[in-house]
Amino acid sequence: MLLRHTPKEISERSAVTINPAKTCQPIGAMYAALGIHGCLPHSHGSQGCCAYHRSALTRHYKEPVSASTSSFTEGSSVFGGQANLLQAINNIFTVYDPEIIAVHTTCLSETIGDDLNQIFDKAYKEGTVPKGKTLVGAPTPSYVGSHVTGFSNMVKAMADLAEPTGKKNGKVNVIPGWVEPSDMEEIKRLAKLVGADITLFPDTSGVLNGPLSGEYHMFPQGGVTVAELKGCGDAIGTLALGEWCSADAARLLDTKYKVPCRILDMPFGLKATDRFIDALRTISGTVVPEEVSYERGQLVDLISDMHQYFYHKKVALFGDPDQLIAMTEFLVSIDMCPVHLVTGTPGKRFEKRIKELTKDMPFEVNVRAKGDLFLLHQWIKNEPVDLLIGNTYGKYIARDEDIPFIRWGFPILDRQGHQYFPTVGYKGGLHFLEKVLNALLDRMDRDSAEEKFELVY
After folding, report:
1. What's the CATH code, domain 172-288?
2. What is the CATH number of domain 295-452?
3. Are 106 and 46 in contact (CB under 8 A)?
4. 440: which of 19, 135, 228, 434 is 20 to 30 A away, CA to CA?
């Protein structure tokens, strides 16, 4: 098999990462920027970097991702990229006419020391930015953090576009973290049912899961508008869904613009969705409608009916910290056992939180921040599991160890549907558990002896 030479014996590695469970900051920044209406993401670095970032997002979302680049040459790499970026800003507004350009840096421009704020100031003063247009930017060096870090940095820059008037607008800022466009749609739907008027940012729904209409639009209809971003400083509060992806932006709005914030987990599963709905209800002064309670009851019913198939099944997971924390709580709540967890994003807080969530489990838990899939594979070899959950790169481990595999997270390159079917909320929980059940029951069918092969389980 492809990974048959992975050894069971585990040795600590400090100088090498094998099959990392992450990618680089600019990809996260580019994805966040696509959640702004009329935005053209811009990569301040070489053409090759931008091509890779666009390709990674296009392969996952199966949609064309537009982005521009400063196209560094040898001269730019030595003397700095200011001239390239100023020329790029002028060309972009002249040719493509976006509402906003969202600039993220790369390793090259960060190593040189280009100062985006200084370059933006020069662009505004020289009249390179047309009236009514906007620039936003974030430093995203790939040698620090991960794609999650880049997403957080760009979202924080988006929040800093706020221009409060001093008069509250009655809206609630919701920062969803790195989730699918379908998840963002579901968050908006739940907020509408609860009666909460929200500003969701970023919002990639309608951008990376839009319809095929037969008409070309340079900028899709979806995304949070610049006007809404400027108004987020007048909101009555902010709900940040995830410590790693969303908290920095929420805290900036709190400290700089006096918009109180709450940091919640991503609403995967029953408990986390309950907390999200309750927070929306509280901050908006509304009541939870029967329709939402009905959806919750459906999820509880499925858990109750199928509990025998979930009970004490061992699971290995890998992905982003915010996603793994919420999913771990969900799995533990239905008596499944997450026993191996790896994220490529650094942060000891992740390990501590997972240990807290799994402290009452009957199995020992292995958890590693800034880990890799080589380590995860070794853990699985030493302690086999019933299910593997993660992005497409897990398929090699699943095949080598003959484990049922559910694709979830980023990137998913070899399957469809994640753009259209949510995992967040009660409806998303139903959809996710259907996938879990199908994987487990398919394996039961495959492995059953003839005398135990049942029509109904």
Report:
1. 3.40.50.1980
2. 3.40.50.1980
3. yes
4. 19
